[in-house]
Amino acid sequence: MFLKSRKKRYLIVTQNEALLYEGFWDELPLAEKVIIEKSIEFFDDREPCVIHRTAVHVRLMAELEQLLSSPDFHSQFCAFTGFPTDCKISLSEK
Which residues contact 64 (CB under 8 A, 6 or more apart)? Predict the structure, then answer.
């Protein structure tokens, strides 16, 4: 029996035709400043270990997913990633 492969969200972020990020949604890098801020907020941890970093990443990515069809998505995406506010975001499935 073969397992069906599940499609994953694929993301391309550009600015003025320059590629800023290309990869899977769940591997999107978040800004270090945001990870530290949220680690302090969620865990009172100023120097987060890999477990806290992963938990912060998962939680913030879930927040972004909830905003995908919202007008607030782009600004929150830029705030979490540190990408410029004039970047273009293209989502697809692979």
Answer: 73, 76, 77, 80
Contacts of 81 (CB under 8 A, 6+ apart): 13, 21, 28, 29, 30, 31
Indicate yes or no: pTM above 0.70. Answer: yes
Distance CA 8, CA 19 (A): 20
- pLDDT of 22 over the 90 cut: yes
List pLDDT tens digits, range 43-87: 999 999 999 999 999 999 999 999 999 999 999 999 999 999 999
Distances (CA, A) of 83 to 1, 4, 39: 43, 34, 20
CB proximity list for 89: less than 8 A, separation 6 or greater = 11, 12, 13, 74, 77
Bridge partners for 92 per DSSP: 10
Which pLDDT belongs to residue 6? 77
Neighbours of 91 (CB within 10 A): 11
